[in-house]
Amino acid sequence: ETFRDLNRNGLLDAYEDHRLVTEERVDDLLSQMTLEEKVGQMFHPPVLIEPDPLFRIFLEAMNAGTSVEELISRESITHFNFYGSASPQNIAKRLNKLQRIAERTRLGIPLSISSDPIHEVPRGGGIASFTLGGVSKWPSQLGFAAGRDPEMLKAFGRIAAKEYRAIGFTTALHPMSDMATEPRWARNFGTFGSNAELSAEMTVAYMKGFQGDSLSDQSVMTMVKHFPGGGPQRDGLDPHLKSGEDQVYPGDNFDYHLEPFIAAIENDMRVVMPYYGIPKGQTDEDVAMAYNRYILTDLLRDELGFDGVICTDWGVVTGRVWGVEALTIEQRYLKSVQAGIDQYGGESEPEYIVALVDKGDISEARIDESVRRILRNKFDLGLFEGPYVDEAAVNDRVNLPEHLSQGMTAQRNAAVLLTNRQQVLPLEEGTRIFVDGLDADIAANYGTVVETSEQADVVLLLLNTVFNGNQPAGTDSTFDQMMATQFPDTDLSFDETILTRA
């Protein structure tokens, strides 16, 4: 057997010995870590694979102007989330380079790389997802919910996990297990819908697909979000913006939103992400979830029995600080640690927590609790044995024909026919079809494509909606426009009488 001498001391330390159980390895590594090395594990900033002007300024702000290489070598940060777009092979090459930098640090702790969804069919207007070329394409969560086939969803998870691992991703910043109880909320398309029983069933299938029955070196760990349910937004306004900070429960249905998360906890949920919102009137103080001790400790830890990692949503200390605007950055770190946070998404300044420990405001034992949970997942994912990926084999492991075929089947299964007036469908042989916004060559497989609507028996139209490109760029515009209920007149490039006739 071979072992990796990660701390280069010429000995086989317990944390380097894969024959030992995880807790022994965690104990040994924790005993060798400095305070700064421990606190570094509590941060999860972004990494950009290739230059991208769209994301560069945003990421520089999140990383406080510090390069990823410096965050690894100087700040002991070992968790990063992928941003932007690049080919799978280029992502693998970049991540291998970063893993080599991590291997040269004092203890050689490997990196954990996470990603938002990359497998959804491009639709435009997406939030917290990327359209990545070179991987198989599947429905969104709402599409899977429409198909109501947990086994198909589990199959997607297994394939997506293989493609994630081939690229170098080991954590999925999904699924969204929020309940879509407010129809105006901009993120409903990313959920499993408004039925708690269905959402719970699909959440578990999603997790099982990505993780397997237990975490291993073949797994991708899921980060289930957004506890305790991010769907009940006042007037549908999203808490990425100050205007959407309130989560409200006019039907007194707070517990209904918990059901998918309870199912996830019962099925080995390892990481959970709270949302930005304030649960108005539900706890003893109206502060965001990341600062709310009742939500994170009394409810999630003590009542529901969760002992995994609680990772904030991105930028809750330096950006979206609802309910704690009057606190300093250091005070926000103190309050959130006391509330129960283990890790900070999108933040990269561990010196604040180090200072709080040095002053005695936070005990090192409390830091150890969080770091133990974080390291446990790294070991169970096999990262200490195999942090690198085979760059030359990436293209042979992603976007395979069998993956594409199953993805296409899932997309067909997700299609929902709302109405079929006059029994137009299925089309009879020889039906004359006029197409606007869709591929005429594909339509020709189902009838005879004609050049004008007047010649047609059936008109097929693809209209812009609030979810596929009808909103201007920018965070504010994305969340505000996606709640619009009107279509602009300029979208209609045909005479409205066509609709009546069709």
CATH class of the largest domain: Alpha Beta
Average pLDDT rating? 91
Q: State the shape.
A: globular
Oligomer: single chain
**Strand adjacency order, main sheet:** 2-3-4-5-6-8-10
| CATH fold type of the largest domain | TIM Barrel
Question: Main β-sheet: number of strands, strand sense, barrel status?
Answer: 7 strands, parallel
CATH superfamily of the largest domain: Glycoside hydrolase, family 3, N-terminal domain
Just name the CATH architecture of the largest domain. Alpha-Beta Barrel
Total domain modules: 2
**Which strand-content bin applies to the residues?**
5-15%
Can you give the helix content as a percent range?
25-40%
- Taking all Cα atoms into account, the compactness measure Rg is 24 Å
Poorly predicted tracts of residues: 483-502
Query: What's the number of helices?
Result: 17
Straight-line distance between termini:
70 Å
Write up this protein.
The protein contains 17 helices and 14 strands. By secondary structure, the protein is of the alpha/beta class. It has 2 domains: 383 residues, TIM Barrel (Alpha-Beta Barrel), CATH 3.20.20; 85 residues, no CATH class. α5 links the parallel β3 and β4.
